[in-house]
């Protein structure tokens, strides 16, 4: 278990204070936050590169605050791979074992084994410069995994890759975690990573932790505007929440009323995930409490999915596959109905 | 068919000035090469005095360049990787010898090391160490003038290597020095070799600071530039030109080598 106990660090312009964080054994923990939130510095401090001003870092109940990086048993992988350019792929992967004084023959066996797992066996004699981004990142992950670290730190490992490679490598990371049961601390600014990988999510902003919980908790109940925006909650409105006698809360935004279930009243924000909205070209009878009709003002194509923006008194965004858009015959100016449940409306304070 | 357009007026001016400059440079250097008769030139090149000057220059320049390397690498590394209070002022001080005329550096060194003018000189002479007007003075003068160049080149080389390479190496089991030796230094190799070539070539040609601290003593502190100077003063043109030609060849070769290593080092590892 990794335990960070009221850690403070000051590094040039950057600082964070009094940070507490626990990563349990075998857990896949993701730190989510925008660039500049101090995530990399936190990881480098855990790895022992920077020295904290105050606080302690414990790994398996051992205080490692003053242990040099080479004796912490922590692996680290950066976004831009950091493969040593003057060494072949095999030399890169075997670097840690060589440092430990493992013999050439044993090293070669280990290198070949892990290269096979990562599908990079055919690249072993090549130099990093000649590899694609995905191949380089596989090499970098293999290089740190070969030492069987107590915890693996991943600093935006998928950010520099194209979308298809990213998805593939994401699946591989998931498989590695499942197979090895390794404790992983992964930082990212892609919220897609958290659904696919995380057991637990920590949201950081300006050097502090603003929310912690399961991916579902973070995505469904973001504690602030910032997190909601960040996690891809597209439809965010503010209004006045009023409790009705039936127990349903009505959020009034001008003449538009959204029904929801919450304990909050007064001035609130409400968020609805685009994928929670049902689109129909005719009025839709269901148990759902909210239904709006409006005109399609924009169709934003983003790969398999398209976002549809509807002017319905408030601007609502929904997502549909391209096929569904064709099937329903939706074009700019079409009249559509948007329906969503009261429980799909996430209410939070600022 | 590729259509050939006439250059614009602006292009024509740029081409014209470049062409004139190239012609002038060629004419000047060819004039130097062709001035002496081949026979007189060969006789001078193989004279005892020129051989002495070549030997002395090569030996002092090699030693001073190695000293520059030993000084420059830690300074450059520290200045790139760490920040500290007053860094910008240390920076100015380190770069000062770059813009200072070598003559001034030489005078300052002379006053600092001479037994007649400074306690340091008196202490050294009491220890029976005499520096001024010896070949040791040549090396000291070269180091003083050239170390800032080497620091500069080493700095730009190190600054192109992201510290994250070392961070990763540390997590893979390297000590701080191990990461420097096994990762950063090999990555900086070409840049540092280029720096060594340029520093060595500058040391071969150093005149002002050497003249002040080591004097111009024939067959004693007579490096190639000093030989050039002494023979010009006595009107022995063939000898002077022989020394000049050797310096010209050294500069040209050094420049080509520097470009070569510079190109090899073209990757930025930021």
Succession of helices and strands of chain B: HHHHHHHHHHHH
What is the CATH architecture annotation of the largest domain in chain A? Answer: 3-Layer(aba) Sandwich
N→C terminal distance of chain A: 33 Å
**The biggest beta sheet of chain B, please?**
none
Q: Enumerate how many helices of chain B there are, as a single number.
A: 12
Termini separation of chain B comes to: 44 Å
How many helices of chain A? The count is 9
Could you tell me the strand content of chain B as a percent range? under 5%
Structural class of chain A: alpha+beta
Strands of chain B, total number: 0
> What's the total number of strands of chain A?
20
**Sheet with the most strands: spatial strand order of chain A:** 6-7-8-3-9-10
Q: In one word, what is the shape of chain A?
A: globular
Quickly name the level 1 CATH class of chain B.
Answer: Mainly Alpha
What is the count of structural domains of chain A? 2
Gross morphology of chain B is globular
Q: Give the oligomeric state of the chains in this entry, treating copies of one chain as homo and distinct chains as hetero.
A: heterodimer
C-alpha-based Rg of chain A, rounded: 24 Å
Biggest interface, chains and residues, is: A-B, 28 and 21 residues
